[in-house]
Amino acid sequence: MCLLNYYKKNEKYKHLTYAEKTMIETWYNSDKKSKKEIATLLHKSERTIRREINRGLVTIKNYDCPEGKEYSVRVAQDKYEYGMTSKGPALKLDSDIKLVEHIEKEIKSNKKSPEVVAVQLKNYGFDIKISGKTIRNSIKSGLIFENIEDGKIIYKKEYNNKNKEKRVSKMVPAEKSLNTCLTSSNMYCLTSDGILYSIDNNLKINKLADKIYDDIYKYNSEHYVIGMKDNQNNLYKIKNDNIEEVDSNIASSSIKVANDNLFYLKAKDKNYDLYRYDGQKSILLREKINKFYIIDKNIYLLKDYNEEDLTGSLYLYNEKEDKLLINKVTDLK
């Protein structure tokens, strides 16, 4: 029986003590125990042990032995103490392992954007409010999400320049940011909280809908938005200060307007189907793709996406048969 199997109440989310780290050093280096076994012995999560070992991993070089890696409690402790000197406010994500695992699953396996994941947290029983940008910053830092690489998210978010001038009525409720779109009679405003407003020429403000995210898209003098309903994203048309549903189960940030058509992806299992909307009806173009690009009126499809190496095969779309261009593509600009 190990020394830690004494009778004490297990405290969640408590940092590893120096004594626990010395035990990790013995078990990992000498006894060759797995991270899962060490986690069980210390009553900690495997994720915690994995992070700690990675923090103190050093390369051992001996003249009579092959080069190898071992865990050094001294190195790990020095890094820990140095990190504590610049400690800021507690991260919302760092204290909830289940939350981190849920976000990783939604982004990597279900291919949802951080913005959609943040909005849907309450639906999955998480009593916490975080923004999509907080999740993106955490991914970029590399300290919390181990299974998601920065820049490898299926749909990237490009944030607008905050200093860019925008024509917004002073009567609109104060928000952190606004997406706006002007028409001949109205101006539509989408707030960072997902509320869609219209403002007419007499500065009359109408709230059209909430839970609207992503952006306002203009196509054939009509305006379209993506909104959430029944835990899925739907495509809506703004018409006469009302919104009409066009299609359901839309992949967030997938809308593109080009070639006198509106293109988008619909989620299906672990892949997506590509649709074209001509203003009247939606037409299925291709099934089981991961992403699409429109460059110089050509449509490029990313298929067979591999979640391990984050690559896929690039095809040039053709009505009869797609043409394979390149394998192992990560992204296209």
Explain what you see.
22% of the residues lie in helices and 35% in strands. It is of the alpha+beta class. The strands form five sheets. It has a four-stranded antiparallel beta sheet with strand order 3-4-5-6, with no helix packed on it. A four-stranded antiparallel beta sheet has the order 7-8-9-10, with no helix packed on it. It has a four-stranded antiparallel beta sheet with strand order 11-12-13-14, with no helix packed on it. Strand 8 and strand 9 form a beta hairpin. Helix 2 (35-42) crosses helix 3 (46-55) and helix 6 (114-120) packs across helix 7. It is elongated.
Helix run count: 7
Query: What overall form do the CA principal axes indicate?
Result: elongated
- Return the average pLDDT rounded to an integer: 77
Please tell me how large the radius of gyration is.
Answer: 25 Å
Counting DSSP E segments of at least 2 residues, the number of strands comes to: 18
Strand content: 35-45%
Distance between the termini: 57 Å
Helix content: 10-25%
Largest sheet: 4 strands, antiparallel
Q: Strands of the biggest beta sheet: in what spatial order?
A: 3-4-5-6
Low-confidence stretches: 1-12, 166-178
What structural class results from the helix and strand content? alpha+beta
Order of SSEs, N→C? HHHEEHHHHEEEEEEEEEEEEEEEE
